[in-house]
Design brief:
The protein is α/β, with parallel strands linked by helices and 304 residues long. 45% of the residues lie in helices and 14% in strands. Helix 1 runs antiparallel to helix 2, helix 2 crosses helix 11 and helix 4 crosses helix 11.
Length: 304
């Protein structure tokens, strides 16, 4: 197998199609009696992943490109409104496939996880903040890494050292990172059951005796840099290079997958677009792992 866009998305299409045949309840709900979609759910997800990997932030531009260059891969190219509705309706399928594809990689068994969050901006003007359908979910927050305020959400990630997404959540910009991490762990007990004694490395925001005690009760070990007045923990010299790994993973989402240029204008729209980007990265790591590539998180073979 080679690592190019066609091969990756064909392999992903076959994997999703097989999973939907084995577990049809994963597919978006539709009436028993009605018109069967010309574009299958597996083809729809392939469609969306290709868009993310190629860096398209405009659905209309992407659909024009598909009609011109990728018509051989799809029996039908939907209009923008129909495509948008179907991607939003595929929220559960996208979430399920991220976990299913991630489990197929050798990175899934890593014994160390990285926990962090990154801003997902949703607007830059006061009028947008007042009139947007996202108001109430989105908030004003501060990004310490870039020393800037923003209006939007935060993408919370638990990844392996190789950048494979294990757990994720979208919250308001002011959501407590510790509470969000606990919620992510509690909503995925099957993941914890297969990773006993896991080590989680976080930044200084993941602190607190009660928080660390809660992780210990879940059989997890937390490592983080010392806060002011605390003694340096063992292995603290490793935190700085690992911090660069976290920033590199975030930059893959922002620089190559255009996370902050998602273009979503509603909670469902933002969620679907972010999930497409998480699945795109997961699928690329999965394919690189299957084909024996030395750098599992490399997207170079798929962005043109």
């Amino acid at each position: 197998m080679t690592n190019d866009l066609d091969t990756l998305t064909t392999a992903l299409y076959a994997r999703i199609d097989d999973e939907l045949k084995a577990s049809p309840w994963l597919a978006p709900w539709r009436p028993v009696v009605g018109i069967t979609p010309t574009l299958s759910d597996a083809e729809l997800i392939r469609f969306a992943v290709m868009s993310a990997l190629l860096g398209y932030t405009s659905e209309r531009r992407w659909l024009r490109r598909v009609g011109r260059d990728f018509g051989r891969l799809f029996p039908y190219v939907p209009q923008q409104s129909g495509y948008n509705k179907r991607v939003r309706a595929a929220f559960s399928l996208l979430t399920s496939m991220i976990r299913i594809v991630a489990r197929d990689t050798s990175l899934w068994s890593d014994e160390v996880w990285l926990a962090d969050s990154t801003p997902v901006g949703c607007g830059c003007s006061r009028e947008t903040a007042k009139r947007s359908d996202l108001a109430g979910w989105t908030q004003y927050g501060f990004c310490a890494s870039h020393s800037r305020y923003f209006w939007g959400l935060r993408l919370h990630l638990v990844c392996t050292l190789g950048g494979l997404p294990v757990l994720f959540a979208l919250t308001g910009a002011k959501a407590d990172e510790r509470e969000t991490l606990r919620d992510m762990l509690d909503t995925a007990p099957e993941v914890l059951a297969t990773h006993p004694g896991q080590t989680i490395i976080g930044d200084k925001n993941y602190f607190g005796r009660e928080f660390e005690h809660g992780l210990a009760e879940r059989h997890l070990k937390l490592l983080r840099p010392a806060r002011k007045g605390e003694a340096e923990p063992a292995g603290s010299h490793l935190f700085k290079p690992l911090r660069q790994v976290v920033e590199s993973i975030n930059q893959t989402f922002k620089g190559q997958l255009n996370l902050e240029r998602h273009g979503g204008k509603s909670p469902a729209g933002v969620s679907a677009r972010v999930l497409c980007r998480i699945l795109a990265l997961t699928a690329a790591i999965w394919h690189n792992d299957q084909t024996g590539q030395p750098v599992k998180r490399s997207l170079t073979g798929y962005d043109h």
